[in-house]
Every structure is written in C-alpha cells, then in structure tokens.
Sequence to fold (240 residues):
Amino acid sequence: MAEAQPSIVKDAATDVPIRLVLFGPPGAGKGTQACKLQEAYNIPQLSTGDMLRAAAKADTLLGQELSATMKAGKLVSDATMIAMIAERIDQLDCANGFILDGFPRTPEQASALDSMLQDRGEALDLVIELKVSEESVVERISGRYQCGNCLASYHKTFCPTKAENVCDRCGHTSFTQRDDDKPETVRARLASYRRNTAPVLPYYDQKGILITIDGDQSVATVASTISSTITEKQVASAAV
Ligand code: AP5
Fold:
C-alpha cells in the first residue's frame, strides 16, 4: 500500500535562503526528499544524475561517453561535473537557495563548490547525510521503475502509481528500469560511493554543517526530520 504523503509545513523562517546538499549512497532517498523539499521551500533541486541522464540522451560523442560511464556505475569526471554545476547555480532560480542532489561526490567537487559559492559571497548552510543500510539500498533500487515517457520515478512497494500501470504525472502506460539500476551496476555504484564519495563527509563535519539522519525510516519521517533541521538552521541564521 502506498505510504501517506507527508506535508512539509513552511513557517516564517523559511524566507531565509537555504543552500543544502543531500548526501548519501545510491538509493538513500536523496531524489525522493529533494522533490518534496523543492515544492515546500520553492528552491530548485539540482540533481546531477538527472542532468547527466538528459545530456546522455543526445546523439553526440559527449552523450555517448556519459551514457557509457553511467551504465558502468563509474563517476563522470570532476571537470565536467564542476562546470555543469557552476553554470547551473548561476541561474536566477538559485538566488534564494538550492538543494544539491548527487553533488559533490568527490573531495575535489566539494572544494570547487566552496570556491564557487565564496566567489558569490555565499556558503553552504547544511549537508544532510541520509544514512541507510546496504539491504535497504538493494531493496529500494531493485523495486524502482520509471515512466517511459516523463521519467517520473516509482517504487513497486513504497511508491507505486496510484492507478495500476498508469503514470500519475502524464498518464503514460509503459515503464522502464534505469540502465544503472541493474544489480551488478548498483554494486559498482555502492563501491564507488564508499571509495570516492564517503571521504567527503569528514570535510563537512569539520565545518560543522553535517547532519546525519537515519534514512532507513519511512519517507514521511525522513521528510519531517529534514524539515525540522532546516527550520532550526534558518531560525539560527535569522537570529545572527
Ligand atoms: P544519481 O542519479 O545521482 O544516482 P544516485 O546517487 O546513485 O542516486 P539514486 O537516484 O539511485 O538514489 P537516491 O538517493 O536519489 O534515491 P531515490 O530517492 O530515487 O547518479 C547516477 C550516475 O550519474 C552516477 O552513478 C554517476 O555515474 C553519475 N553522476 C551523478 N552525479 C555525479 C557527480 N557529482 N560526479 C560524478 N558522477 C556523477 O530512492 C530510491 C528508491 O527508494 C525509490 O524507488 C524510492 O521510492 C524509494 N525510497 C526512497 N526513500 C525511501 C524510504 N525512506 N523508505 C522506503 N523507500 C524509499
């Protein structure tokens, strides 16, 4: 049965800009939570995975290279990712904050992000790590499927379509699995997370902006914990 959708309640403090990173392994729920937050806080979700999947569709050499890298569960080069985010956070809709989903993924990306923000007189406010067990990751990713037309994401147990086999968003009736959600690629993505991405955590911990949340809880519980964390941060920033 589909889980009741949580409501994230905004309060007055949410007018304070918030620059947030959602951090965690594949399947941790970054995309799920980012989607709720962008509606509640009216700030954009910057998903590097989504940006890359869109770029990989192009019938160009770069598109083919990106597609092959993602299908292998490997990371795209830091130079490509840093350029992609630098261009994106310069856009007007990021003026009041953003939710980064999937970036930074290496210490080099984390340090480049800090420089980009510093040049704009800004800084990250929060890095929220969604900590999940490997069993959850495997269960979540193996049950995930997407609309063949608009790419809306569903899960056969945790987040099915409202009407059987009909996309809630566009009404399309055929669905696919992400190319990189095959079991062997998921294992490669998890290995890459442990090797390249988890080492970013101590960097943010030292800066005092890392908050770890138990991502094995329900979508609603995780959403309300993130929301309270953001509100606390905004109240603290407003008081300065
Ligand atoms: P990307 O698309 O970012 O993949 P990922 O980080 O592996 O993230 P996922 O989308 O798999 O997981 P998620 O945490 O968003 O989980 P979701 O919310 O969907 O990147 C893909 C590839 O692009 C990379 O492998 C790499 O090649 C490349 N790339 C991207 N960024 C890069 C970078 N910065 N540098 C270099 N390369 C980069 O949830 C998963 C499922 O679980 C869903 O079905 C959902 O319904 C369900 N679910 C979520 N939360 C819960 C819950 N609390 N309880 C039960 N079910 C839940």
